[in-house]
UniProtKB/TrEMBL annotation:
Protein name: No apical meristem-associated C-terminal domain-containing protein
Originating organism: Setaria italica (Foxtail millet)
Pfam family, one: NAM-associated
Coiled-coil spans in chain: 252-284
Keyword Nucleotide-binding: no
Keywords, alphabetical: Coiled coil
Residue numbers spanned by region Disordered: 149-196
Record-linked InterPro entries: NAM-associated_C
Coiled coil in keyword set: yes
Domain No apical meristem-associated C-terminal, chain residue ranges per copy: 126-277
Biased composition (Polar residues): 151-167
Length: 322
């Protein structure tokens, strides 16, 4: 090759740009959980289905039900499912612990709230997949997971200390054992396994201690709440008794006033009747006296008229005699 030969032009490395997909919404999470349940619990296709074909079915089912949302790739859906699986599994463990403690006077809704508080206190972040837990909590695989998480070995998973064996326990995907063996990772050595076991035991002990402290605090809060409620109810009852007594006294006073008013009205009517009767008697008496006086005047007039007539007769007789 000559020195004057020009080197061939270098090819530019084309970097593929990838648009970041939006976060999964609560509706998409629900569809993903339901699609996973439908495919994994289907007795026709569940038997012997491989991991790859399983997830192809899940992705197809998911995208067909979320046609109005952005289409998700298999990698995106599997990554989201791993997150849901880990978070819901942890929350299921806390809920199992809450159910075993069985606080008195606590409703199911209160238990969910208290469990979410425990989750946030220990995991250092809030549990945001309550809608997924509501869908998965009563499924047989999750019920089995709860029983496995009750063992001391699996309880440490709530502290994010997971050995490879515990990760297999938390994995709910079918044919995951074959997928795990195909990763080609070197198996854990004896010393590492021993250290991991000691770490798991320490984390489990710490978890039990924290849960005990939380249970004691909750019991104290419930006791205080019951005392406060009793005091408040006693105060309400006392106030109601006072109100009833005041109302009774008020009614009694109003009744006495009504009786006095009726007595006064009765006395007034009696006096008015007596006055009217007296006036009528006076009128009758005056009328009698007037009639009597008139009769007397009439008699006097008649006597005077007779005297005048007699006088006139005497004068006439005297004149005639003369």
């Amino acid at each position: 090759m000559s020195a004057s030969a020009t080197p061939p032009p270098r090819r530019r490395k084309v970097v593929a740009t990838r648009n970041k997909q939006t976060n999964f919404s609560a509706y998409e999470d629900d569809v993903l959980c339901k699609s996973w349940l439908e495919i994994s619990c289907d007795p026709v296709i569940n038997t012997g289905q491989r991991r790859e074909s399983f997830w192809v079915r899940v992705v197809n089912r998911y995208n067909s039900k979320c046609s109005t949302y952005p289409e998700r790739t298999q990698k995106s859906i599997m990554s989201r499912w791993d997150h849901i699986k880990a978070e819901v599994s942890k929350f299921s463990g806390y809920m199992a612990e809450m159910i075993r403690s069985n606080p008195s006077g606590m409703l199911d809704a209160d238990k969910s709230v208290a469990t979410a508080a425990d989750f946030a206190a220990i995991e250092k972040h809030n549990f945001t997949l309550m809608h997924c837990w509501q869908i998965l909590k009563d499924e047989p695989k999750w019920m089995e997971l709860k029983r496995k998480m009750d063992t001391p070995q699996n309880s440490a998973s709530r502290e994010n200390v997971l050995t490879s064996e515990q990760r297999n326990i938390l994995d709910l995907d079918p044919d995951d054992s074959s997928a795990a063996s195909s990763t080609g990772k070197r198996p854990m050595g004896r010393d590492a396994a021993k250290a991991a076991k000691e770490k798991v035991a320490a984390a489990s002990s710490e978890y039990v201690s924290k849960m005990h402290d939380l249970s004691v605090q909750k019991i104290e809060l419930f006791k205080e709440s019951e005392v406060e409620q009793k005091a408040r109810l006693d105060k309400i009852v006392t106030l109601e008794k006072v109100k009833v007594e005041e109302a009774r006294e008020h009614c009694k006073m109003m009744l006495e006033l009504q009786r006095e008013r009726l007595a006064m009205d009765k006395q007034r009517l009696k006096m008015e009747a007596e006055k009217k009767e007296k006036e009528e008697l006076n009128c009758i008496k005056n009328a009698d006296e007037h009639q009597k006086g008139r009769a007397q005047l009439q008699g006097v007039g008649q006597e005077r008229e007779a005297a005048v007539v007699a006088t006139c007769a005497c004068l006439a007789a005297w004149k005639a005699w003369r």
